[in-house]
Amino acid sequence: MKSGLFVGAALIALTLTTPALAQSVERREIGSQILENVPVAPASIREGLARYQNARSAAFDDWAPAGVNGRGGMVITTRFGNTNQLHVVAAPGADRSQITFYDEPVASAHTLPDGKILFSKDTGGDEWFQLFTRDADGKVVQLTEPGTRNQSPAWSKDGSVLVWSRAVKGSADYDVLMRDPSGGAKVIYKGQGQVSPVAVSPDGKTVLLGRYFSINESRYWLLDIATGKLTEFNPAKTKIAYGGGKFTPDGKSVLLLSDEGSDFTRLVQIDLATGAKVSLSGERPWDVEDFALSDDGRILAYVVNEDGYSKLVVQDFRTRRALPQPDLPAGVVSGIAFSPDGSKLGFSLATPTAASDAWSWGVTDAKLERWTASELGGLDAKALTTLELIRYPSFDKRSIPAFVYRPKLAAGHRAPVIIDIHGGPEGQSRPTFNAFHQHTVAELGAAVIVTNVRGSTGYGKTYLNLDNAEKREDSVKDIGALLDWIKTQPDLDPNRVVVYGQSYGGYMSLAVMTHYSDRLAGGIERYGISNFVSFLQNTEAYRRDLRRAEYGDERDPKMLKAFETISPMNSVSKITKPMLVMQGWNDPRVPKSESDQVVAKLRGQGIETWYVQFKDEGHGFLKKANNDRRREVETQFLRKVLGLDGAK
Known about the structure:
By secondary structure, this protein is of the alpha+beta class. 17% of the residues lie in helices and 37% in strands. The chain is built from ten helices and 39 strands. It has a twelve-stranded mixed β-sheet, with helices on both faces. It has a four-stranded antiparallel β-sheet with strand order 5-6-7-8, with no helix packed on it. A hairpin with a 5-residue loop joins strand 23 (266-271) and strand 24.
């Protein structure tokens, strides 16, 4: 073992020599960051990334209580330091006034009827979330017990009832708790599996509870708080996937998202007395993914996901009459909520060339207002690359959607390609701003293809279920078909392709490397599943059965045999090109052991393997300093494996 200390920097370099073909490991530690076999980045890379790394975004959380700043406005999440924190914006274009100041990121903020702001926070990305309230004077009170996981808060119209779900370590079950007037909390329902409150009736007597079994199945119940009586909501003989839920102001019906009787998710109103159902969104060949109802029950808004792009619909709830509709830039809308008086609808909007910002739509005056204008870090918005929605045929002739970012090229030149695969697997890549994609196109001259392989959400239940269990590798074949499509494109270089993914996309990156290594220049995977059996055994207890419902149950001999075939760890010998692996130490979903074992096996067979670890992150990297390092290392790796030494 050889070691050396670099004076003036908080890093240690170690060279570890291992037997046989295994490569030596040079290790550097920089604060909470560990870099193995990663060269020191030249200043030119850091300088080239600076503008892209300093773009920021803002997300609408809720409407601010007047007491927080004397004027109300919006509560938003944005970042001026290392992590996202809560801010208040008093009016469109006003200053973003910070109201939380933590080292850890803050998320999921809501305004309660009593004027307090409810938010959640974990530690180091461990996802053991705690709930807090902040009053108008800035006093913060923790509502939950340390060491537990708390989520899905819901409350009554007057705020007298506040409930949430809680899991404890080592258990797959969630209980439902209610805030006690004394300041504590009591269990009002001992749940089985992932049970959570969805909504509280206006009179505070009933909680709509949901249990999530899988992306294809959930069940709802009505819980009488006083008696503990549980009544199944909308009993059915077939599996139904629900989403969200809100009581009407009279408490006589519930609005929710449901795929009952359809390949797509619709917005439905269900009468509690008769069970009668009315589709509020009609029949559409796309999913409705979010909705909001004004407090007085007059105005309804919902968001439709049309091929990845959002369509915001506003209508009179009582007459079903369409109201003036906002003409929004093409992008993705999220987090919609009406102001307390129902005159404005707040939401977040992101587009391929503009980071997420907070907006509002005037229901009565039809006025579209942008409340925040997040800085692009010195980037020229007009020079940013727009994307193209394409479809390509897969092995079974099925059409696969993808978004393509293409660089500007001199005549006769072909661009290298990065294939970016989303996580989930129940997820979807959407047309939003991505600073690293823009950097890759503009500074490296590479194309980026963001694909939605089979199993992605947004395209109906049939498409969603095409990769379940034993069919898992059919989605890998979709990437093989994409490699075939790249060969047909005159401006793309099929000999310089890198596959990239995080979480489930990390598994896909590994799997694609085992199948198509001869057609790839390298692979990047962040906290991906390397072995389904060890993953299911080691993921946190509260999510294990949920993942079994998606991937299959390793306790079933038939499925265990399938896992032996499809787990990348059992085919690492087929990987012949360099790989970059990244992992957070506190990941409760895909444990660090998944990355450790694949890195060890790759190195054991002599494959060049870079490994980056963050001691203060979990499933996803949320601190700016760590994301800056991530992008720096990814850029180094791409330049090397794609032969871009001459790149800017």
